[in-house]
Write a structure and sequence with these properties.
- The structure holds 2 protein chains of 2 kinds.
- Chain A is of the alpha+beta class.
- Chain A contains 11 helices and 12 strands.
- In chain B, a hairpin with a 2-residue loop joins strand 1 and strand 2.
- A two-stranded antiparallel ribbon of chain B has the order 1-2.
- The chains are: A alpha+beta, B mainly alpha.
Chain lengths: ~350, ~170
């Protein structure tokens, strides 16, 4: 992570945007002749995994990669942008490969496609996320027989992904648009005009909580990498503009109510004895809004995002607490401790 | 590719015949082929083609039987064309070869004249780029011939020959 922060700092950066939390680019690749994962049996998937792993071993540029096994991979070890990637532990030939050298790279094996090469970056840095994934893709393609045709491009399990085989996703924090009830019409508009999807990052029982949304699009057939990245970037900039306008309006018209909400969230987070993940994220999102708008001088957006990623159910389960109430208690304790730490250090 | 006669079924047979010094090319499904064959009152296939016809295809009704027992499937993984039409998933990379005409048609219906324009695996990059170019040129050539733009067609043809030489297809 330090590496990334240094790089961002070099680019004159810090956090490029307070609304776009993270960028992710996924490249979908398959091997020739091997059955696609849903068609294959467990042992056939394991064969694919072994084959890919052997190829990785041969490539000097990929020496830093390792397969995660139980205990090694917990979301707590990731930074904020590693939320919910659908990555899992080795199971029926499915595995995730991470890198010691490149913390922003993950390769998921046998999920839908043989290889899902994912690059990440903080904030709105689609190009940087693409660079990470593209570099690994080039090295892998030197050593693996990719399924590729000049007519169709990269051959994927689902014909819907056929072509460049690239998916671009962003995590957006959109509390003001939720408060103003603008999300549904914006989401519909984006989908109908550009086939761009807006999905809740955190959801339970069909309800989105925490005001975090994925904005994502898979290249349609005929679209190049650059085209789909530009399209998502434009859509993200539009969403950022709308969210900024909504925040500005809130500050202008309902500043007292906004400050009240932020302080109430802070009070809940620092005084509750039991906090479910839903409630904690809902309140931390308001706190994050307060930090973005400089209503809370001592908190930086980065600190709050880090806290959110450390209190997910997966992270808490990692701390060996099995009962729901005990988990919620531990979560409340962790949040309280961390918030007071930040407050006092700032 | 759908049947040129009924337009409902997928065509399995590319039927070429010479009538009044004109070459007629038709894509046919099994049913329409069978009807056409019957109407034309031809001799059994085995008599016309002799040993060239595999033993199981001796007469038209048997062609039909052979097809209905063995659905159009990928030679590598056995995935069936019908399951692709059902959910859009394929079984392996070879399916794209086995079902290429059907896929090309579906893609044309969904994305119009879109052509692949993304990156290629690094080792194949140079070759793949040429192959993509060749593919585009072949389509252009067809278009020029249809529009009777013979000069442009000739240029495209020369370029194609050149590219094929580079890709050592000739």
């Amino acid at each position: 992570m330090d590496r990334l922060k240094n790089r961002a700092a070099k680019k004159g950066g810090g956090r490029p945007s307070e609304i776009v939390v993270a960028s992710q680019v996924t490249l979908l690749r398959n091997l020739e002749f091997f059955f696609f994962p849903h068609q294959a049996s467990d042992s056939e998937r394991e064969e694919v995994l072994d084959f890919i792993w052997a190829a990785i071993g041969k490539e000097k540029g990929l020496r830093g990669l390792y397969i995660t096994s139980e205990g090694e991979l917990s979301p707590a070890s990731f930074d904020s942008h590693f939320w919910d990637l659908g990555l899992n532990l080795t199971d029926g030939g499915r595995a995730t490969i991470l890198s010691h050298d490149e913390p922003n790279l993950a390769i998921a094996i046998n999920y839908d496609d043989h290889l899902k090469i994912q690059g990440f970056a903080e904030g709105l840095q689609i190009d940087e996320a693409f660079r990470v994934a593209d570099q690994a893709d080039d090295l892998l393609s030197d050593n693996l027989p990719y399924a590729f045709s000049a007519e169709f491009g990269y051959l994927t399990e689902s014909v819907a992904n056929l072509g460049a085989g690239i998916k671009v996703s962003l995590v957006l924090h959109l509390p003001a648009l939720i408060m103003n009830d603008e999300m549904d019409s914006l989401a519909l508009n984006l989908y109908e005009s550009k086939m761009i999807l807006l999905d809740g990052v955190f959801a339970s029982g069909g309800e989105v909580f925490g005001n975090f949304y994925y904005l994502h699009k898979t290249a349609t057939f005929g679209q190049s990498e650059a085209e789909v990245m530009a399209e998502v970037k434009t859509a993200a900039e539009m969403m950022v503009e709308k969210e900024m306008a909504a925040r500005k309006a809130l500050l202008k018209e309902e500043k007292t109510r906004l400050i009240d909400e932020v302080l109430r969230s802070f009070a809940t987070l620092t005084h509750a004895k039991l906090l479910s993940f839903e409630e904690a994220v809902d309140n931390l999102s308001i706190l994050l809004l307060g930090a973005d708008l400089k209503l809370l001088s001592k908190f930086t957006p980065g600190q709050i995002l880090e806290l959110i990623s450390s209190i997910s159910p997966e992270a808490i389960v990692g701390l060996t607490v099995d009962d729901d109430d005990a988990q919620d208690g531990l979560r409340a304790e962790m949040i309280k401790k961390r918030l007071f730490e930040i407050k006092e250090s700032g | 590719m759908f049947c040129d006669v009924c337009g409902n079924n997928i065509s399995f047979i590319y039927f070429v015949r010479v009538l009044n010094n004109k070459v007629l090319r038709t894509n046919l499904c099994e049913d329409c082929f069978k009807n056409l064959w019957k109407d034309m009152a031809f001799k059994p296939l085995s008599e016309v083609f002799g040993d060239l016809v595999p033993a199981e295809i001796k007469s038209v009704p048997q062609v039909r039987a052979a097809h209905s027992n063995k659905e159009f499937a990928c030679k590598n993984c056995g995935a069936k064309l019908s399951s692709y039409f059902k959910d859009g998933f394929l079984g392996c990379s070879e399916c794209y070869k086995s079902f290429a005409p059907h896929l090309a048609q579906t893609l044309r219906q969904t994305y119009g004249d879109a052509e692949y324009g993304g990156k290629a695996p690094r080792g194949l990059e140079k070759e793949a780029k040429l192959a993509v170019k060749l593919h585009k040129l072949r389509r252009k050539l067809k278009l020029y011939v249809m529009e009777e733009e013979y000069e442009k067609a000739a240029c495209a043809r020369d370029e194609i020959i050149d590219l094929e030489k580079q890709l050592s297809l000739r």
